[in-house]
Structure formats: structure tokens, C-alpha cells
Amino acid sequence: MHNKEFTEPVCTIEASDKSFDYWKNREDTTPELREGIAAANMLIVPSESYRDFREPTFPTGTEELLEYLRENSPPELTPEIYATDTTYQELALHADILRIATLVVEFGIVPLAIGLLSNYLYSRLGSRRDNTTVIFDMHITGHRQTAKVHYEGPAPAFEASIKKALETLQANPDAALQQSKPIVKSNDPHGH
């Protein structure tokens, strides 16, 4: 599905075990990281492996994303990153695909997080927004069980597609987590 000519937004929901507790209780979690996780309601987490690269890595631009979130978040949103200065590693991939770092987010602040991410995309991409494919995962905790929302598609469709997936999750969490079909898949590149 990672195709630079990808034009249809696809958004899926599935059950996940990657909650705040998962990251807090990993063997490699330092006391400093545990403290940050305990204070956060939005956690930027690494990919635990990518192809042959087995070390936890973040997509290019993650530090910029964290800085944006810290500067623009309302007081009720507390972003943190699962990395220290010595463990932070970026992995650069395709330039025509924007991979946003994976987030773990408390259910109650998801609308704020999505609004901030949409603004970040607009700010970061500018005029390239219409021609950029976005890949993003978010693990939502605190609503029965942790759910992973995956988005892959054009940047302009990001916010509408994620909101539709969240509406589905909120309306019927059990059914949403049982689906194997995409929540959003249409020929409309804006996710309507």
C-alpha cells in the first residue's frame, strides 16, 4: 500500500496493546522516560522495527513535530516523546511520503490531537499538501480497550478520515475493533 501514486484515503481501526502502560513497562524504559509517560496524555513513540532495522526509530521530522505540539498545545494536552537524547534515532524514508510519528493518546483529548496534527500538516507542507501522501498510526487508550487507528492517504483527507474513524469507534467500539474493512475508503481524495 506504500505507493507514491496512492490517492485514496484508507483509514482502519484495530485492537492494540500499545497503551501508555505498554511503553511504561518495557524493559528499556528508563526512570526518566517513566516519569515523562506518567505526566503525558499524548506520547510520541518509535517504530519498534522497520524492515531490517531492529532498533526503535522515529520518522524524519519527529523533533519538529514534538516542538510544534509543545508550542501549540492547549494546557490540557501534554505531549511527550519515548526517547532520550542518547536513544533518539531517525530513519529517513521516501521523500514523497510523509510519515508522522506514531502517537499514543488518551481518548478524551483525541479531537484536540487531531486538530493540532492537521494544523501541523498544513504548516509543514504548505503548497505541497495536495500532493503528499501521509502515513500515520495512533493508539487510543481509555475507551474500553486500546485501539489503533491507521491512516494512509492524501494530506487533505487526513482530518476528515480520522474523524470518521473516531466517530465509528465512539459509536460502537466493539464493532469497530472487529472490522477488517477500512472505515474510510473512497474515490474522494478529501475523505468525504
Describe what this molecule looks like in 3D.
By secondary structure, the protein is α/β, with parallel strands linked by helices. The protein has one domain. Helices cover 32% and strands 23% of the residues. The chain has six helices and ten strands, in the order βααββαββββαββααβ. It has helices at 20-24, 31-39, 62-72, 110-125, 158-171, 173-178; strands spanning 10-15, 42-45, 58-59, 79-81, 90-91, 97-99, 102-106, 133-141, 147-154, 184-185. The strands form two sheets. Strands 1, 2, 4, 6, 7, 8, 9 and 10 form an eight-stranded mixed sheet that branches. The protein has a two-stranded parallel ribbon with strand order 3-5. The longest helix has 16 residues, at 110-125. The chain is globular and about 40 Å long.
